[in-house]
Amino acid sequence: MSTGHSQSSDFPTIxxxxxxxxxxxxxxxxxxxxxxxxxxxxxxVATLGFAFLSARVTMSAAFSEMIPVTHPYIKNFLSHRDSxxxxxxxVRIAVEQKQGVIMDAAYxxxxxxxxxxxFLIPGVERSYMKSLWTPATRWTAVTEEGLxxxxxxxxxxxxxxxxxxxxxxxxxxxxxxxxIVAPDFKSSIIFVPLLDRDADGNALDSKTVSESLERIRRxxxxxxxxxxIVGFTKLMGDLIEGLTVIAKFFALAVVICSxxxxxxxxxxxxxxxxxxxxxxxxxxxLGLLGAMRLPLDPYSMLVPFLVFAIGMSHGTQKMNGILQxxxxxxxxxxxxxxxxxxxxxAGLTALLCDAVGFAVLGIIKIQxxxxxxxxxxIGVAVLIFTNLVLLPILLSYxxxxxxxxxxxxxxxxxxxxxxxxxxxxxxxTQRRWAVGALTVALVMAxxxxxISLRLKIGDLDPxxxxxxxxxxYNRDVAFVTSRYSTxxxxxxxxxxxxxxxxxxxxxxxxxxxxxxxxxxxxxVESTMxxxxxxxxxxxxxxxxxxxxxxxxxxxxxxxxxxxxxPRDLFNxxxxxxxxxxxxxxxxxxxxxxxxxxxxxxxxxNNSDGFKVLLAAGNAGIEATTNIVxxxxxxxxxxxxxxxxxxxxLVTFRSWRAVVVAVVPLVLTSMLCEALMVILGIGxxxxxxxxxxxxxxxxxxxxxxxxxxxxxxxRAGASLSEAYNRALQFTGKVVLLTGLTLxxxxxxxxxxxxxxxxxxxxxxxFMFLWNMLGALILLPALAHFMLTAxxxxxxxxxxxxxxxxxxxxxxxxxxx
Length: 815
Known about the structure:
By secondary structure, the chain is an alpha+beta fold. It has 27 helices and nine strands. Strands 7-8-6-9 form a four-stranded antiparallel β-sheet. A hairpin with a 2-residue loop joins strand 2 and strand 3. Helix 10 (about 305-325) packs antiparallel against helix 11 (about 330-360). The longest helix has about 35 residues, at about 615-650. The two termini are about 30 Å apart.
């Protein structure tokens, strides 16, 4: 069946520019194209300026920006921050003796040198550092005169065998075995708490601190000494270091996209312009970030590529429209104006939906995600200028090659017979095929929903899921976890009491009860508190008899314990206790079970003089972040779908058309969540944005296909004819961009940064499924939902893409 018809009167073939009415078109079109030289100069100057400003963009990953500071649990932590030094952002440095044990003069000297150099790193909370060489690391013992103690490494240490034996005895009495000294005595830890801000009041630069730690590692690591570093700041430093790898994948994606676009149109000049305008959008974005002094962080490093990808999608649509018009004999400038008329509103709506997909992330009260939302929204905003305005203007000057125009025309007309793929896709407008497609979609949606119920919030694996399991950082985490009873995942419960009552018997009894419940959890390795220390002191005061491992209601003895206890267990006014809970890992189930137990205990035991509060420690902060992410994950989808639905309703002015456009997106979202379950990917700060972006970016395909379909129906075509013409005009570009962008991001699978590899898989999946949804599910829904009235009410464009034009005589004059 032929799909051609005579050239629309709204878009007549005009080969001579003097025959075109320059006052036609919208006000915006007249302003842009009647002053195209000026617009071109402004865009060129802007691109140079933004390229210069982009050099100001820095990489940053501040700890305070990664946590939900407005959540009550984090507010509890911040309100007591001065009393909880080192329980937020911290680093642990494990120094291992490969041959022998740490009771060696050479090892202890190396440990001292590392300790001293770390001490001098800007941003270190020096007074709360802890290692064998810090005064805060003390031993206590019961003597005939009562409790006695001192620093583990005494002032008279001289490296002699006798002094080393003394250090060994002090370590045995310090209670630090399993905490900063490995039970096998083959390694020890330097605990390094970090400040949130440097001396100038700026957020601590994780990259700089990580580089300083790395220099120390390289300096002291040898055949006999191994240095391992874990902690948030080191993780962020490793991710920032991987930026060079991400840049290589970005370059590879540009090459893949360029190659596939050229294969599609066989025209070098238009391919170069589409790619150049998309790259220019990235430069504009980075330049605006530089002007606003907004940094990039490891989680927003992928945003420039997304901006490039969106630009390629829109740019290819404009290129295809101009190719077809020029192929029919229309002058290149007029062809550019025609394409602007047909697709600007649809493109603008699509970009607004993209922007909504990004901007809605701002509802999540975590600064790093809000900055990602700002960064991405800026990028989408500049695409309006670079790809909807600048690209048509450039093509109006350059035109396209004769062979490319003829090839596009032949493809549009089908050379007398319809394309097999388009004929196959066109069948989904028929009832039998539409029912089949919707039935399959319904089954997939039900299965995906059932699987998605198992979607977890937070990390699902030990170590850092942002990096590969065999990465150096995760190997360091595995080393620390396997050799120390106090893991690097520390959950801290705060207990408020009346002033000077932190050591009261009634307080310690309830703290002890909490510890006993916590130790029964499968994910808890050990706990530590003033109550636990008081039990140990009671044993020591009774000749080491374990039968005395009890809390004794003796105010004098408990007061003596408080006097000699480490200061990280309580504050100066003795009205705040810290209960340290050392977790086996920071998996989602481990964190949630710990939070639930502490919450239930608090509800049953909190009173005026005793209040259990959540949460401090890196694991406590991560647990709180998971709570915020869980709540935001659904709110985010509601907002983004609400905004996209509203924009589509304003564009199409038909609720039925909105259903046709949005339902495929819902299916893709459900399938994406199911895929995350299958791949073992949890919802967290790094992955949360992708789910929203899949909706915002995915609606682009539906908007282009549906807008042209409705416009053709308005012109009197049936749904089958209208959809077939939409496939010829925009559908093949939807297919091209879906396959191109899917192939480009699939290369990320080979990245050493795991969360980039995960994002590559998820983005490729969504690019492809949104494409299939627009080409298969959309026409199937349209069969049941769209009516002549819906087409009549549509006002997104005046007319559809021009169809087959019998005459090609003016083609050579327009190239």
